[in-house]
Structures are given as C-alpha cells and as structure tokens.
Amino acid sequence: MWNPFAPRPPVVALVRLEGLIAARTGPFGGLNASGIEPILARAFGLKRLAAVFLAINSPGGSPVQSSLIAGRIRHWAAEKKVPVLAFCEDAAASGGYWIACAADDIFADPASILGSIGVISSGFGFPEAIQRLGIERRVRTAGTDKSSNDPFRPQSAEELARLDGLLAELHVEFKDWVRARRGARLKASEEELFNGRYWIGRRALELGLCDGLATPEEEARRRFGEKVRIIPVGRAKRRFPMSLLPGAGAALIQVMEERAAWARLGL
C-alpha cells in the first residue's frame, strides 16, 4: 500500500556533456559555456537533489570554453552544496578531462580514454600553392604582428616562437587546474601525466586520473540506495536545420574538425 508519509527517494541529476568543445557549436551539437548554463541551472535546481552526475564524452577543444564550463560547474556545486561526480564514457580527453576535473570524483569505464593534458594548435599552410596558381595575396595591416600565422605565406621563426609561448602558457593553466582539483590523488610524476599522453580507464585509475571504474547507475545505487532516482537533464535532440543548407560548407568544416579531434584519440 502506498504510504504518502514515506520519505521520497533521493534524486540524482544526470547531465550529458558530449562533443567538441568550441565557442560556436556545430549543427549536430557540441559544448560551450552559454549552451550548458541553462542545463546546469535545471540540474542543480531539482528538488531532493543528492548529487549531480556528469556523463562526459568529449575529445576536447577550446581551452577557454573548457575553463568556463568547469567554472560554472564549480559555481553551482558551491551554491547548492551538492557533490558532483564525472563519468567518462568513450573519452574525457584534453578539454573533456579539464571539465571532468570540475567534479569531486571521476569515474570511468575500463576502456574509456582519459588524459591528454596538453595543448595543440593545428592548421594548414599554402605559400607555394598560391604562387603556382599565380594568385597575388593582398593584405595590409597596422601592427607588425596583426597577420601572424597567415596560411598563405611561410611562418617566420618569430611567429613560431610566439605560438610556442602561447601554447606553453595555456599548458600551465591546464596543469595548474589539474593539480588544484586532483592534488595528492595523482600517483605519477608530472613529466608522465602532463605531456599530452592519454590512457584507458584502468590505467588512468592507477595513475590517479580517476577514482574508480563504475557507471552512473552503479555509483548512484552504491551511494544513495536502490530507490535513488536518476533524472536525465539536457538539451533536446537536435535535427539538422534546413536553414543551414545554403551554408553547408561551414557546417561541414565543423564536422571535419570534430572528426579530426576524435581521430587524434584513435576513435
């Protein structure tokens, strides 16, 4: 018989964070701070909330958006005073791992990919191709470094040095964040952990990059009992917007960028 006075079961919000992390998301999804904020607000606003679980499946992307998303997660966790747990699926790599470190504890599947604590810059250069085609490049700037890394001319030693310095500074920010969030739980040298390498879940556990091997359902029952309610919170599934067809080239580039990010992980 139903007892109206029986205590209601605790609630766990499950937020899915999937795709490439970028300031502008593609037609098939992705992650950025402005898009995830209303989802976090709904998740942390649930009644009888016992915890927020993050299901992360991302190859990384923008370090700025990764930092902003992680910051918003920590803001809501502090305001609502509930624990946050991250669950890595196929990958929580690079920016995906940056976001995972916003959680109080990180879990993975034995075959998940974690880590890639590094920074990458990639692109293309066409200085010889443009000459062969007889095309004249016309660029005027005010400021000697305004046209740095122009793909239609060779890179200078000064440009390469500036880019290397920028990447090194971003890498420091990433390492400082991991140190602050994981601290004494890291079980290997920084030379091994912070060189951009990634590992599968079981090895990541040995290195201290995660805290256990479990699914959200398993950990929810272990912490909060068999009657715990897991409530998915996220955006509605997105269909390809027909309005983008005239500019399908830009959408295709975004898809290719995400595909390249996954390919770097062998996925």
List the helices and strands and how they pair.
Blueprint: E1 11-18, H1 33-44, E2 49-58, H2 63-80, E3 84-93, H3 95-100, E4 105-108, E5 113-115, H4 127-132, H5 157-182, H6 190-193, E6 198-200, H7 201-207, E7 212-213, H8 216-224, E8 229-233, H9 248-263
Parallel strand pairs: 1-2, 1-8, 2-3, 3-4, 3-5, 4-7
Antiparallel strand pairs: 5-6
Radius of gyration: 22 Å
- Distance from first to last alpha carbon: 51 Å
Architecture, CATH level 2?
Answer: Alpha-Beta Complex
- Beta-strand segment tally: 8
Number of domains as seen in the coordinates = 1
Strand content: 15-25%
Largest sheet: 8 strands, mixed
CATH topology: 2-enoyl-CoA Hydratase, Chain A, domain 1
Number of helices: 9
- pLDDT averaged over residues: 86
CATH class (first level) name: Alpha Beta
CATH superfamily: 2-enoyl-CoA Hydratase, Chain A, domain 1
Shape: elongated
Low-confidence stretches: none
Helix proportion of residues, in percent?
25-40%
Task: Give me the strand/helix succession.
Answer: EHEHEHEEHHHEHEHEH
User: Helix/strand-derived class?
Assistant: alpha/beta
Overview of the structural elements:
Strands 1, 2, 3, 4, 5, 6, 7 and 8 form an 8-stranded mixed β-sheet that branches. The chain has helices spanning 33-44, 63-80, 95-100, 127-132, 157-182, 190-193, 201-207, 216-224, 248-263; strands at residues 11-18, 49-58, 84-93, 105-108, 113-115, 198-200, 212-213, 229-233. By secondary structure, it is α/β, with parallel strands linked by helices. It is built from 9 helices and 8 strands. Strand 1, helix 1 and strand 2 (49-58) form a beta-alpha-beta unit. The chain is elongated. Helix 1 (33-44) packs parallel to helix 2 (63-80). The termini are far apart. The protein has one domain (11-118, 181-263): 2-enoyl-CoA Hydratase, Chain A, domain 1, CATH 3.90.226. The mean pLDDT is 86.
